[in-house]
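Annex B.
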Amino acid sequence: MNEDLHLGQGARYSVMVLVFFVTYTLAQIPSNATVRRIGTRWVISSLILAWGIVSIGFGLTTSWKQLVALRLVRGLFEGGSFPSIIFLMSTWYVRYELQKRYAGYYLLGITASAFSGILAYGLTQMDVVGGMEGWRWIFIMEGILTCIVAVLAYIFLLEFPDREAQTQPRWGRLGEVECQFTLHRLSQDRGDASLEPFSPRAFLRSDLKLKTWALATLFLAVTAVAYSMAYFLPIILHNGMGFGVAASQCLVAPPYAFAAIFMFTGAWEGDKYRIRGPIIIFNSILAIVGLAIVGLAMMGYAASSGAQYTGVFFVAAGVNASIPAIMAYQANNIRGQWNRAFASASLIGFGGIGGIVGGVAFQPSSAPRYIPGIWTPIALMLLVISVVLALTVFFLVQNRRADRQGVVLEGFDGFRYTI
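Major facilitator superfamily (MFS) profile domain-containing protein: predicted structure tokens.
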């Protein structure tokens, strides 16, 4: 692909990676406002279908400029679908059921990352089949699978609980009793089951709350490290650890498989004990340890490729396990459906900015040590720990005021922030 589209010239590869996140970030907030007003099935399935069609287009590009243009368009569709799904999930479950659900959803992405390298290696063996290079088949097959997911989403995806029972009869539709049961649980948990009328003021209310941006900053930092790992792990395995191209593609899978198990275990514990911050801090420390191992090995203090690879396991587990934890942390401490719509869109939007940071962390010019690419994620993980500690102090103080002085938090008597 690099040779066919001349991506190795100048900063073309970095431009191709980064432009995606411009439209990805801009699409978040309008998407959540739209999906709440129009409905989930048409909006989300249409976005996923368009995303799949654009992915097929990747396999038909003949120049790097076409690829950049398609990356911009894909960012628009992918950026619209992800926060909408996260927002939808938050309206169906009470606060201490969310992290497991978010982890299950993100588990799909982890699984894809785990086996994408192996799949990519297999599809590259289709080189010249149909007169097309193997890398083109990777994008075409990815696009076809995404289009199939879009059709399944239209068939099976639920609406918001306050309107699901009113949708057209279809297989799997929930009835009035199930929806009312869900709404009752949500009202008991956080008192925001009913949707208030839309207004720009109601939608943008979370814009004025510092905790909204603090939580979004957490997501930015964690996703920056996650994206840098996803983009450059095969390169690090090949250039930094000396594995062959085929081995590097296949060795991507085990760290992500381990991360999936670690992530779901942490999510289960987080929901069981109703904690978020301590889990995020533990995950960040684990990632720092892993980054330190990889960095020291690259600087020559540990020559073993096995030591570096062990560090990769720690980084993958710590970073990816923090993503659903932060999503649940945000959902647990934001009340009101329009507030939640804006806050979840802002969270995922900052994740797009994290993608930009992650895309420039590992520069080819810093090979084979990649020192800036190691220190940048370490600094971001330290930022995560600092912000979580600050939020923990704030939430503890506010909860104590509510307990001792009867202060009503988030406009709902009995609401307490999740630590």
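Residues 12-164+202-405 form a domain with the Growth Hormone; Chain: A; fold (CATH 1.20.1250.20). The first helix runs from residue 12 to 26. Further annotation is deferred to the next reporting cycle.
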